[in-house]
Inverse folding.
């Protein structure tokens, strides 16, 4: 095991400790986002060992588990969780989920954020005004979390619960050719995907550019609408938010993924005890 910390770790330490011995770090994930939060909690607990304060923020519609960090939930009791849609659940877990449905999910996150800024606005700004040093943002659907980080003007890091998604990677100009990757939205009929087949590469290109359009345009339109009361014209840009992020942390072990550019993204999760 190397004795010298990797470059990205040294940079993160500098980011977290500008003239202080500990930092206040807020992680924002999608609504009722247990599944996304638990893939990041190991990293958060590792920060706690270095005397950093960590807290978790999301819209809470029902009681949650103990995540082992401070909670900054926004109580949405009395409101319906848009993600609790039988039709959407059927598409996500029984049928073929596509980049088109990705835009629907951003729409759900935007709907909740709009409700928060209408009916839980005081709680939103109560959390925002706690003077966080760093914001960690779920790469998927955490619309009000993006708004908090953007309004604060503080550094933010994109947290990807798997690998860097095609749209987000393109927003950040990671120089990845996603035609040579297994698409995130792979049809059941293409489980034998290989870049050696022209038809499969065509499908990968279709998924890549479709994801870019539906996340960057359709999904972003909903986010602009949701955050319009706190981020004025030209309104919020998800592409720009990704581009400005200080880091992009992933949870995809290299052993399970093909060779790809590794600019400023870093493994976390099960490896953070070693890498930090």
């Amino acid at each position: 095991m190397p004795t010298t910390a990797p470059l990205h770790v040294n940079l993160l330490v500098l980011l977290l400790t500008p003239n202080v011995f500990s930092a206040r770090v807020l992680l924002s994930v999608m609504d009722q986002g247990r599944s996304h939060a638990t893939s990041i909690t190991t990293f958060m607990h590792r920060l706690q060992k270095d005397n950093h304060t960590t807290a978790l923020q999301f819209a809470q519609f029902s009681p949650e588990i103990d995540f082992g960090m401070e909670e900054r939930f926004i109580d949405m009791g009395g409101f319906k969780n848009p993600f609790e849609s039988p039709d959407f659940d059927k598409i996500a877990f029984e049928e073929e989920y596509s980049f088109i449905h990705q835009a629907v999910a951003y729409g759900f996150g935007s709907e909740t954020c709009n409700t928060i800024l209408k009916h839980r606005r005081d709680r939103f700004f109560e959390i925002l005004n706690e003077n966080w040093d760093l914001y960690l943002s779920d790469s998927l659907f955490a619309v009000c979390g993006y708004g908090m980080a953007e309004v604060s003007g503080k550094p933010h890091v994109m947290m990807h619960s798997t690998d860097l998604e095609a749209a987000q990677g393109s927003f950040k100009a990671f120089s990845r050719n996603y035609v040579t990757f297994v698409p995130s939205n792979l049809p059941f009929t293409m489980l034998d995907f290989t870049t050696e087949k022209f038809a499969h590469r065509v499908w990968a290109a279709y998924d890549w550019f479709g994801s870019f359009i539906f996340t960057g345009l359709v999904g972003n339109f909903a986010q602009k609408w949701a955050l319009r009361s706190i981020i004025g014209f030209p309104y919020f840009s998800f592409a720009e938010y990704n581009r400005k992020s200080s880091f992009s942390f992933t949870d995809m072990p290299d052993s399970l993924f093909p060779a790809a550019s590794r600019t400023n993204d870093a493994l976390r999760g099960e490896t953070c005890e070693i890498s930090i």
